Structure formats: structure tokens, C-alpha cells
Amino acid sequence: MIREIIIYPNPRLFLESKKVENFDKDLHTLLDDMYETMIANKGVGLAAIQVNVPIRALLVDIGDEEGEQKEDKQTLLEIINPIITPLDDEKISCNEGCLSIPGFYEDIMRYKNIQLDYQDRFGNLQTLQAHDFLAVAIQHEVDHLDGHLFIEKLSFLKRQKFDKDFKKKSKKKK
């Protein structure tokens, strides 16, 4: 089932998500719904809080080497209770967007190489080393779980421009 994505400036986007304790049918249904929602909205990641469920669960699917997402979910990562550890201090700039802030993209600095410790949908502990775009996508989604949006990483001037453009866009919709 495709769920509604909550949109900035909804205050729920700034809530810190709670640790997942139950790896049950309800969690599996949520993860499946999140996948359908992410694909339907042409996203590469989605945090549970974006569909109004404040738990530490997220999806990332950056696809294969050509960027193609597989229908059989071969490239899908279901990440529960993530803990990120940077592997070094190297950072990269990546042009990010967000399903909760449609139509806005900006270059953001993120760690290039991370280790991710997490649980899968069954509660099994997993470890993954991620690099480049995958590392960026994971960090973006974990920020959501911590109640942060990528626009908070903008410089003061870029944030002022975003706020001005957002207000202008909001007035046009009314």
C-alpha cells in the first residue's frame, strides 16, 4: 500500500524516532508499504518518519551499477536501528533531494566512507561498509530518524534563499 509522505514544514519531520523493539508482521507490512511508496515517488531512500511512523527504520535502494532498481528487491536495503561510524574523515559533495521537500536539490557534504551496523527485518544484526552515493543516501535517511533534514546542513545564505523560495512557493499554492 502506498502511504502518504509528510511534507516540510510538518513538525513531525523533526521528531527523533524510537528504537524498533518488535520485528513482527506489522513491521514487515510497514517496510513493504514504504518500499511501494518510495518506488511510486521515484525515491532512493525513505525513513519511516516520512510516512508518519516515528520508528528507527529506513529503506535505501540506489540500484545497481547503472542506477537501476530491481523489481525483485535485490538492491534494496532494509535498515532498522542503524548506527553509523565514519571510516575516515574524507567527505564528498553530493546533490541531494528529499521526498519530504519536493522539487528542492542542493549540494551537501557527507562522509564518503561509513560503517553501518543495523538490524534487518527479522532483527538479525548486520554490518555493512558503504561508500560514495550509498554512504550519502544512508546518512541522509539516518538524519531523518534523528529529526533532521538535509536543508539544515546548508550554509546560512543558501538556507535563507531556501526559506525565501519556499515561502514564495507556498503562497502560490494558496
From TrEMBL:
- Which cofactors does this gene product need? Fe(2+)
Task: State which Enzyme Commission number(s) the record gives.
Answer: 3.5.1.88
Listed under catalytic activity are: N-terminal N-formyl-L-methionyl-[peptide] + H2O = N-terminal L-methionyl-[peptide] + formate
Q: What is this protein's function?
A: Removes the formyl group from the N-terminal Met of newly synthesized proteins. Requires at least a dipeptide for an efficient rate of reaction. N-terminal L-methionine is a prerequisite for activity but the enzyme has broad specificity at other positions.
Provide the family line.
Belongs to the polypeptide deformylase family.
InterPro entries named among the record's database cross-references: Peptide_deformylase, Peptide_deformylase_sf
User: tRNA-binding among the record's keywords?
Assistant: no
Q: How is the cofactor bound?
A: Binds 1 Fe(2+) ion.
Question: What is this protein identified as?
Answer: Peptide deformylase
Q: Which GO terms describe its molecular function?
A: metal ion binding; peptide deformylase activity
Q: Which organism is it from?
A: Campylobacter armoricus
Q: Which UniProt keywords apply?
A: Hydrolase, Iron, Metal-binding, Protein biosynthesis
Identify which top EC class this enzyme belongs to. Answer: hydrolase
Q: Where does Fe cation bind?
A: 98, 140, 144
Q: Set out the biological process GO terms recorded for this chain's protein.
A: translation
